[in-house]
Amino acid sequence: VGGAFAARFLAEYDARCLLSTVDVYDPSPQLSQVLNHLSSDSSNSVVDLQGPRVSTLVLEGGNISVELGASIIFGGNKLITEQVESDPSLEKAPPGNTGKKTSDPGGFGLYDGNGIWDLIVRDDEPDWKVALQLAWRYNFDLIKMRSAVKDAYASFEKIYKIIDGPSVFASPDELWKAVGLFKTTTLSFEEYLDTIGVSGSKQKASTELSDVEWSWPRAAFAEFLPGWDSIARIFLPGHGSLRRELLEAINENNYNQNNSELDGLAGLVSFIPTQGDIYCVRHGNSQIIASAFSRAKRIHAAKCSSNDDRTGIQGREMDKNDADFRHVKIIVTSVVFNDDRVELWGKNSTGENGASNDADPVMIGYYDTVILAAPLQHAQIEFKAKDSAGVIRPLQLNRLCQHNGKELSCDDSLPSSATRKYTQTVTTIIANATLAHENFGLTEDENVPRSISVTARGKQEEGFSALSRLSDTEGSSGLFKIFSPDRLTETQLSRWFGSNYIVKHEKIWGGPHGGAYPDFGGGGEAVRSLPFLLHGDEDGTGPSLFYINAIEATVSAMEISAIGAKVVAKLAAIRMGILAH
């Protein structure tokens, strides 16, 4: 997402046609194709080169498509939604509707393991009944949470106007401060829930967070009526269970992390889709990536194809026949900075599953600017600098220098958000299966919900974070998708599905060089981010290195990557002189 959208925004910013070449290096299939990963249990190379987290599996000759990673899109995600709506070849569809029959039982359930259900909501129930059921169980806490999310989304919406204007941001932290969301990143989601007065607190909010808005009614009850939660449960049995049930299940599903492990902003963003319309793209969300990249080529060609004699950045002559925007299947192994340009070295991605058969890297191109659109800690790229004598040394990233009045001190250490491994999630697709009612504490007359999310205890008991039935048209029984922190064993699958199931696909988002989501570490210092500019001369001249995924330190989603891409594209365009500032 980051690479394709950065290419698109650079094309939009290049009004004077100064860009000669924009190359997207990626070992994945061509961006015009659906990203269909092969099973990752057959080769470590698949884990090491896991590709984009927005990826689609196609089954039954293209009749069934399954999202392996990012499954839903919130209608309020303006950059992604605008891209979808601008492309007539993309069609919105209800999420998870692959092969769905109108007679299929649906709905969702919150499962606590060992046959215990906290909540079951069926999709054939009227909206008013569902609303009443949720209100009865979660009552005032649900109102507080929805109010907090409404306020957070109002702040989030300010981003679009700001990044369309003249403002630039050196880091994600600056962006969150500009829209009033930075404080939510300074504490865990569990602590944030304390500050808005959601009951069921496991801990007291830090006194250092006094400048974060605190719910005065909650504070009053805590001060003058310490037993309020216990009294409320007499009349409202579900009082105090919102955070342990619904919120934790949503976060385990979306991030494979609990409320204490997420930062406040990630927890809020995780809940936002429950407040509006959600959708997916028919035949695969991965088409959005191809659409954004195609749009970049189309925009730039329309503006610049008639300019036969063009002079590019730093006065270099440009061939009118050059392909301006290219996707190249290359595994980049090193980035080497010289005084006036950057060398990229890599290997051809010609082997199985995007791996390389080349023994040694080769020099693949010279560039003025490099944009990294993958997690730094998992990119497997060496960053180097070559001096005038040809001596190569490691490149200093994030070099921050301050003068205390007497001397200049520099710190080039990386924050922990740039060194911690991403959390692992395994996506398993099961066909020819029927879920065992008895294993989940239900009788044959009780339909198992189409979508099952688990609490932290449920995940510990069962070994999965989410399970959903996608279709009843695959084989003789259903098609299921399971998210789990580890690979599922035959014992687990047999317990849930009996003996006739077929493992259609297994995708590991993890291994030594990958992961599904950042490890947010409970917020605070753990989510302090790198700047968007990792390397470059202070005077704004010379080659530079930008980093889109710096924005993932605090929250991760398709829209977040697109926002990071737009911020970085503007910074790069200004630095290269193609956009005035």
TrEMBL record:
Keyword set includes Glycoprotein: yes
Q: What name does UniProt use for this protein? A: Prenylcysteine lyase domain-containing protein
Q: Where is the Prenylcysteine lyase domain?
A: 127-200, 409-576
Q: Where is this region: Disordered?
A: 85-106
Keywords assigned: FAD, Flavoprotein, Glycoprotein, Oxidoreductase
| Known cofactor(s) | FAD
Q: Does the keyword Protein transport apply?
A: no
What the entry lists under InterPro entries is as follows: Prenylcys_lyase, Prenylcysteine_Oxase1
Q: What organism does the record attribute this protein to?
A: Odontella aurita
